[in-house]
Design goal:
two-stranded antiparallel sheet, mainly alpha, single chain, DNA binding, Four Helix Bundle (Hemerythrin (Met), subunit A), Arc Repressor Mutant, subunit A
Length: 243
């Protein structure tokens, strides 16, 4: 296990990423006891303080539990926060995710986002609608094959969830946006998109702007469904998966 000491990332964040990735890729299994802080710190030549802070980060993400004198153990998968943006990044950056995991992300999106679009149609503010329009314009200008376009896509989906005026749904905004980002990166990993998704986003925006809740719901269902078809087209492992 190697610790990256990049200038842009504090040491404890790098340690958390290394341990978190090891957990997510199966190097540590649920129930496994991690090395104690003295052994770990000496092995990696890092401070015990940095290791303890890394463990706190992982505990907040549901990956581990730490108890005095009992040590730090890997939690059951049911405790892992799979919508945490860091966890999603670690999964997608370390080899292709399992077909089941990709399918589950799209199942979640298909459950949440159409309903959110319907609520946003009824509850959005003028400022939120303007933010969605700007995001759509940037998506059209840059495309989703580049970072600027993907950032605009993230803003588009996050803004819809915020526009629901539902705080519980709002807590999902960063996780849903991260899922959108990483599945988009995955299907465009050869540098090009299978299809231009901007027209489907425009239909969602038009329905929200018109206050058409049912139209927004249907448009978002179509958008998410086509996005899953796109990812199936570039990953043969997903041919038999459906949402």
């Amino acid at each position: 296990m190697g610790i990256r000491r990049g200038r842009s990332q504090r040491l404890h964040g790098s340690i958390a990423q290394e341990i978190g990735t090891a957990i997510l890729t199966g190097a540590y299994a649920p129930g496994d006891l991690l090395a104690n802080e003295v052994d770990f710190s000496e092995r990696l030549s890092v401070s015990r303080t940095a290791y303890r802070e890394a463990v706190r980060i992982l505990a907040a993400k549901g990956l581990v539990s730490s108890r005095p004198k009992a040590g730090t153990r890997v939690n059951a998968r049911s405790s892992w926060n799979f919508l945490d943006p860091d966890i999603l990044r670690w999964i997608f950056e370390n080899g292709p995710p399992s077909p089941a995991f990709v399918r589950e992300l799209f199942e979640l999106r298909q459950i949440v986002e159409p309903a959110a679009a319907a609520l946003a149609a009824a509850r959005h503010t003028k400022a939120e609608l303007a933010e969605m329009r700007t995001a759509l314009e940037l998506m059209g200008r840059h495309g989703l094959g580049v970072e600027e376009g993907r950032n605009a896509d993230r803003v588009f989906h996050e803004t819809i969830l915020r526009a629901t005026r539902n705080e519980a749904l709002g807590t999902l905004a960063s996780g849903i946006a991260a899922a959108v980002r990483w599945t988009t990166l995955f299907k465009a990993r050869d540098g090009r998109m299978p299809r231009d998704p901007v027209p489907e986003h425009a239909k969602v925006l038009d329905a929200i702007g018109a206050g058409d809740a049912e139209g927004a719901r249907r448009a978002m269902e179509t958008l998410v469904g086509l996005a899953f078809q796109d990812i199936r087209s570039v990953d043969p492992r997903l041919i038999d998966e459906s949402v």
